[in-house]
Specification:
By secondary structure, the protein is α+β, with helices and mostly antiparallel strands. The radius of gyration is 37 Å and the shape is globular. It binds adenosine-5'-diphosphate and magnesium ion (MG). It comes from Oryctolagus cuniculus.
Length: 839
């Protein structure tokens, strides 16, 4: 048993603005513990809390200042916990602090750089590395990922669900058994045999979390996430199994409700979060007070789940994340205070050993059998009842395998049962006789062969037939798949009217439906092929997209708009950067793969040469009737040292390739995540844009009842800066499938809608908003038109805006301000040569 108080660490996040100094100081000189002093700025000190202290001092195991990188955090905080988990103890690391203080950055990592990966990916990497090294035990690793939001648990790893909101994820509930053990119903456990598999699960969970988040439920700041590694280990042949759990917890933001200042739904959420953290605080207060018998774990889901971590069977570590800026000073102080209380809690970690009942039964059965046999030998008691048919059959099988066994040491073990021993002798005699007869007989050898091969052939034939049936089935499935693919491609072609991009899509589609395992398997293949296999990483992207169910549903117009949106989005820079890095890593991996192959070939040659040399030496010795010369052969020495050198080179390159593989994997996952995020933002923007256009629509086209169309007057076209040329392009683009099409050309003539003077109107282009591909191209054309005008009018604007959403929003507002501002801007005449949808 290990008695240990919860370890507390502090991590200070780099400030947004530099030169924010003088607010805190760190004193590491004191024995063992470090202390953090938060100094109140003069202007705050007076009115702060209820006393006039000027500084607050808090003790921590260690304090990591702004410049501490992720590796330092891992080595000092997470690695010791991971080590105790490997030894069979439970471990927990939780991050506590206000929103934006770096909890997610610390636990999961930053979304941009590989070097920013946080505790979870680094710990996974470390654990799997250790498991690989230790061959004395058999390890099994499972992963679960739970999100708790508003006192409800959600399984972030459920593969069946395509979550678009939190409610779509399976709800996890708590069950308590009579021994007061907590069980989580509906939380799926996924086996991970490699680091890659575990990492995929982490990213799948994070992506689900991101997708499920809406502006209304900013789940990432208001929910708790618990990533758990379940590790079991067993020594071969032993019935004792060790189980250990490692919880890596990203808590909700600890800010108080008073500061949030929100109402309605958001207030409920803020309260809830506070409620949840409030219960955590209560548990911690109760635990830190001596002689408290009741600990209110059951008040909230989170404290129930983390019951062992808080004052129980676990080695627990807390990281207080601090954003030590002036405006956060009260929150930072309260985070530190919380940590001080946490440090008073003592945990008692024990080795979680368990006897595997299945293995135990087998073991006991064997023991009973042995004892019975011993007893029979000692007492000389004979069993009289006849052996059963099954026993006889079993004995004959044993004899057969005994006879086939080439090992001269092999024994025929039938136990101390005289009936069995006798039967064995009988059977052996029979076999011997049977063998003698055919030898004497005159039956031709061919027939004899046939006879004894008969059962073998029969067996072989049956096997082949089974394989044949299996193959037939496989072929049928493949043919069906191909048919489906073909049909899909044809449908796509049909829909897009032979659009080029669609063609491209249909061409590539046969390669898309690949099983996830396939990709993973290729990742694990041997070193020389790894370099080529990196190309198959893309499957994950499909997996994630499949998860989101977004991309597939995008119509062409929408896809085009998405491309524009992506281009204008700030994250696309990171995406591009990462793409660039990824490219470099790919080529590095490819080159390494080639060098490894080369080294391998060289090693082969050197070995060959050495053997040849050796044979030559021996031959020489024989021919000269002398022994192999005892003096070392210089050529052989050189060859050996070359071989060693080559082997070292091979090993170094192999290690580098392995590291590269992990990095590429991680970057790929980061990019996938960023893509999904971008797509999500695009969807939100798209919906907003569509509803705004609809809201702005003055009147519904009276002819077309099926599809609402917006009509816009001439003056309005000016206001919103849609050029005439653009309008006609928009109109022209719509001709075929839209029921409104025939009207547009007339509308362009200048007819205006009634009531235009009082309400703002849109340009004359009709913009139906039903979400079909035609509609999408309309919106797209509309956006493009506005963009191109804006770029002409104010080329700087695009570069100044940080994100696509904002930028397009700016386009909108600039357009309307131009219109309302009276500076008459004739878009139509100023942009005659600029087509709206220059593609
Ligand atoms: P929280 O999860 O506590 O709300 P985040 O982890 O999301 O906060 O951090 C907020 C922002 O600050 C993120 O953009 C993150 O990348 C950045 N950040 C946090 N901690 C650090 C750090 N130690 N170094 C660099 N950037 C950080
Ligand atoms: Mg966070």
């Amino acid at each position: 048993m290990v008695n240990q108080p919860i370890q507390i660490f502090a991590r200070v996040k780099p400030p947004l603005r530099k030169h924010q100094q003088g607010i805190y100081s760190i004193d590491e000189d004191e024995k063992l513990t470090a202390s953090l002093e938060i100094i109140l700025p003069r202007d705050l000190a007076d009115g702060f809390v209820n006393n006039k202290r000027e500084s607050y001092k808090f003790k921590f195991q260690r304090i990591f200042d702004q410049d501490a990188n992720q590796e330092t955090i891992f080595v000092n905080i997470a690695k010791p916990v991971a080590e105790s988990v490997l030894a069979g103890y439970n471990g927990t690391i939780f991050a506590y602090g206000q929103t934006g203080s770096g909890k997610t950055f610390t636990i999961t990592g930053g979304a941009e750089r590989y070097s920013d990966r946080g505790i979870i990916p680094r710990t996974l990497s470390y654990i799997f590395e250790q498991l690989q090294k230790d061959s004395s035990k058999v390890y099994t690793t499972h992963i679960s990922y739970l999100e708790i939001y508003n006192e409800c648990g959600y399984d972030l790893l459920d593969p069946r669900h395509e979550a678009s909101s939190l409610e779509d994820l399976p709800k996890v509930t708590i069950l308590e058994d009579p021994d007061q053990n907590i069980h989580l119903k509906n939380l799926s456990l996924h086996q991970a045999t490699t680091e890659e598999e575990a990492l995929n699960l982490l990213f799948l969970g994070d992506t689900n979390r991101m997708i499920a988040e809406t502006p209304m439920n900013q789940a990432s700041t208001r929910s708790h996430c618990i990533f758990t590694v379940h590790l079991s280990s067993k020594e071969p042949g032993s019935a004792t199994v060790r189980h250990a759990k490692l919880h890596l917890v990203d808590l909700a933001g600890s800010e108080r409700v008073a500061k949030t200042g929100v109402g309605g739904q958001l207030l409920t959420e803020a309260k809830y979060i506070n409620l949840s953290l409030h219960y955590l605080e209560q548990v911690i207060i109760a635990l830190s007070e001596k002689h408290r018998s009741h600990i209110p774990y059951r008040n909230s889901m989170m404290t129930s789940v983390l019951r062992d971590s808080l004052g129980g069977n676990c080695m627990t570590t807390m990281i207080a994340t601090l954003s030590l800026e002036k405006r956060n000073i009260d929150e930072s102080i309260s985070t530190c205070r919380f940590a001080q209380r946490v440090a008073l809690i003592k945990n008692e970690a024990v080795l979680n050993e368990e006897i595997d009942p299945r293995l135990m039964i087998i073991r006991l059965q064997k023991e009973i059998q042995e004892l019975k046999e011993e007893l029979a030998l000692v007492t000389g008691e004979l069993r009289t009842e006849a052996l059963t048919e099954a026993e006889l059959h079993q004995l004959e099988k044993l004899i057969a395998s005994f006879l086939e066994d080439q090992d001269p040491e092999s024994r025929l073990e039938v136990g101390a049962d005289m009936r069995k021993i006798h039967h064995c002798f009988h059977h052996l005699k029979k076999l011997l006789n049977d063998k003698k007869i055919p030898e004497k007989s005159t039956v031709p050898a061919v027939i004899k062969n046939q006879d004894c091969q008969e059962p073998v052939q029969e067996e072989e034939y049956r096997k082949l037939r089974d394989i044949l049936t299996q193959r037939d089935n496989e072929i049928n499935i493949l043919v069906n798949m191909l048919k489906k693919e073909k049909k899909k491609a044809q449908d796509a072609l049909h829909l897009s009217g032979m659009n080029v991009s669609e063609l491209r899509h249909s061409k590539s589609s046969p390669f898309q439906p690949r099983k996830p395992e396939e990709g993973q398997r290729t990742l694990l293949s041997s070193a020389p092929t790894q370099a080529q296999d990196f190309g198959t990483f893309g499957y994950r992207s499909n997996l994630l997209h499949k998860k989101t169910g977004m991309r597939e549903e995008m119509s062409l117009g929408r896809q085009e708009a998405f491309e524009i949106f992506k281009r204008d989005h700030s994250d696309s820079v990171t995406l591009d950067d990462n793409k660039q890095i990824l490219k470099q890593r790919f080529s590095e991996a490819k080159a390494l793969g080639e060098s490894i192959n080369e080294a391998r070939r060289k090693i082969g040659h050197l070995k060959e040469e050495l053997t040849q040399r050796h044979i030559q030496q021996v031959a020489l010795g024989i021919s000269e009737h002398t022994a192999v010369p005892p003096v070392p052969d210089p050529r052989e020495e050189t060859l050996r040292s070359q071989l060693e050198e080559e082997k070292t080179r091979y090993k170094t390159m192999f290690t580098r390739l392995k590291a590269l593989k992990v990095e590429i994997e991680h970057l790929q996952l980061l990019m996938d995540k960023a893509k999904v995020k971008l797509q999500k933002q695009f969807e939100a923007w798209w919906a907003e844009e569509a509803s705004r256009l609809q809201a702005d629509s003055p009147a519904v086209n009276s002819v077309d009842h099926a599809k609402p169309c917006l009509q816009v007057s001439e003056p309005q076209r000016e206001r919103s800066c849609l050029p005439v040329a653009t309008a006609s392009v928009v109109s022209a683009r719509r001709i075929a499938p839209s029921p409104c099409a025939s009207l547009h050309s007339q509308e362009l003539g200048g007819s205006s809608t009634p009531g235009e003077g009082s309400t703002p109107r849109r340009p004359m282009s009709s913009i139906p908003l039903t979400g079909d591909s035609q509609t999408d191209s309309d919106i797209l054309a509309f956006i493009k038109a506005r963009q191109s005008i804006l770029q002409k009018k104010s080329p700087k604007l695009g570069g100044l805006q940080p994100s696509g959403v904002k930028r397009l929003g700016a386009v909108e507002s600039t357009c309307s301000s131009l219109g309302h501002g009276g500076a008459h801007f004739r878009c139509g005449s100023e942009t005659p040569t600029q087509p709206a949808d220059s593609e």
